[in-house]
């Protein structure tokens, strides 16, 4: 397959002009009938203001120069780019749900009911006892989880200073631990690519607040020693944190709560199919075991004796991690998705995700050093540059996988097709991989040539940052 | 046709599954999983799958349990009319189902939209660097405090915030700064605005950042912002100003009053009332460029020498810098930013300024009407107001809000004898009814 | 690949180099380092007059894909900073031992030079 992406080119210098290049006007506040004295207002405002037909053209064209899950395969490892069901959009757009978060509980029974319902669904799916839906993204969920761990330790009079994180973990884990004020202890993996149990035993101590783990890990391997890992951490009084990025591999097959995890976050924009929207919004609900429920952010929702819903503040709540209730619209879509799939669908999602990954890897010419993997695998581009191979894949109608991460696989191409790809698409995807991988040096170094833009000079963009149209005029 | 058991979004037929299993060399799907028996789960969540049709009905009935009230509410989450255009354009699957632009060559569309959004914020704030979104105003404030801590030369530890800062916002700020060893302290208000004299007394060597909002959470418009800017310069603290997109169109330009960072709510445009879902503004000056959290879209050129957009300065971010990143933020509110940008472009500067001026005018008119009702004194602050104002009530506020709710209107009770009302163009049609209800409840 | 390792310089394991020219010590990063980093986009340096401490980070060098701390080989007061690097960070890549120099320092403790790696020792390290 060849993919020629739309390319609107106004002239040889640019593609679609900026809004500011189409129409800009200035309003002098003093020319308006301002109800405020001049010293309390700005002088003027200069912005584009286009008619509806012009805006429709502008954004429609922009959308045509943009790849998406609905365009074709998007096998980014650890991102779980699965299809976003359309009906969830309609559910979230229900006008009755468009209420203010400060509404009295009795006047908001619908929304509180939804929140309660998703709390319950996620608790069951993760094997947790209590869930908060407030964190507005996975990283925010991680931060919430680590704050809960911190509050727990402080409550018990324990002064702990370290969080242990595998070297292969996602960057957010490290950044989260540092934001919470912890020192990071990096854990190497063993030859098989999993947590080095001996290294872990040497790393845990009375300073260990938590071990953060992704399972399966970021090369798709299940931590076989998870029970012993949990024991090792619990024995020193530490907590075990589950990064939910790879939960799609476990749905229905294993639950973090049953493995010994005390705290987990869910990435609903991954596992539960809410749309990624060009980078967000997502949501990162957090689940905890009973012992930690009192520390969850406030408010949570519970059912009253009469079958109504009420908000309440957990006894030792850490407070808030979002100004209001989190990313409401996203949370609604996640609920609808789970309801659509049910037990059979959730288990099937993980089964087909794992089958698709294994089938795809089978068709590739690249080696996959670590296995047995589940829903994602890290192929290696060997002596070719993974980033260049990826750029060439763009010309073949697929989005490439994540490249050059995790570092334990050189020239990594971390690939996660998800369960939504058919066999036919997987064959096309494999062909794109193989064609790019075996293409000439020149082809991969000059790629892409069929996308809207050719290869972009990242160095110049970083050396001379221009972050607004105002900067272009300077 | 696909199998009807299992996920409706996995397209495999039984035949395909069998062929794929065969190709991989295993007998069953279960054989592909390397999960030890002791932690295996049998798949019984007890969640019954329902059809699309059934779920839509179920959730329609669920949301119908919300009372149908006309909301005169604000305090950080506002309702303005969002043109249909915004939905139809931002809902295009190429935008909605796309991802972070890690391969910019194939995602120029969204990158350009975000670049345009950043530019709009640059104009509105007067500051040259704006990122393409934070989660909400509260977390943006928190990130500003962390930035202030990183850049401030001396070893101060205090973030000064208004006494009237919304409690939830303060809690978020405290959670974020705790790990950096900072503490949050309030300064008093003077009739709804910053008590500048008291602030001057409080601010000193210990101060890392001074935060003020314009308008405040009570809707009052600030009058001495440049003095705060000067104070911040004198104490070498950062001046962080919180606002929202509509207010920024009319009120004093943050850069002109000495703001170093602007945070706040951008979801006032592009997003209708959404139970508090937000979009955080983050804008700052050039000298803090490398300390900015979140994603930045920049301009460069491609191999054909055409202008091209790309995420840039990514070395600040968690995926490269790990524990030394400026923030742990990864997923942001990009799609909400797209919506805000479309809305701004559709209003244009005239539409925006008109809207903002209405927010001042209409609040003043309503306040006068309420003040005329016996049992109410409005507004309690002798200030200009933006969208909302606080009212003193002779009767207990809780009783009044309950009565008013029974009549079909939702307002805020903020203290024993204080209520707050917010008015936008989405509710001006209902002010007569509200006034009547207040009269009844007095 | 063979990297340039001038013999008249001393080195740190972390790839910084120093030279002595009468009382002035110049500091920069090695050819190996600039190759590892890739195209340098930004260099953050202290101000003239600042004190740097041997073994501690004095600045940051940034490329598209990485950010690295710069470690001081010796202690002393900064007497000069290569201002050209602000507009032309690529000098670090093009001429790491010449025009890509970063700092000049007035050393406070000459004995620290003994702790540095010789050109041979550094060559062995990067081999």
TrEMBL record, chain C:
PROSITE patterns: BIOTINYL_LIPOYL, LIPOYL. The modification N6-lipoyllysine is found at residue 65. GO terms for cellular component: cytoplasm; glycine cleavage complex. Transmembrane segments: none annotated. Binds 1 lipoyl cofactor covalently. Keywords: Lipoyl. The glycine cleavage system is composed of four proteins: P, T, L and H. The glycine cleavage system catalyzes the degradation of glycine. The H protein shuttles the methylamine group of glycine from the P protein to the T protein. This is Probable glycine cleavage system H protein. The gene is gcvH.
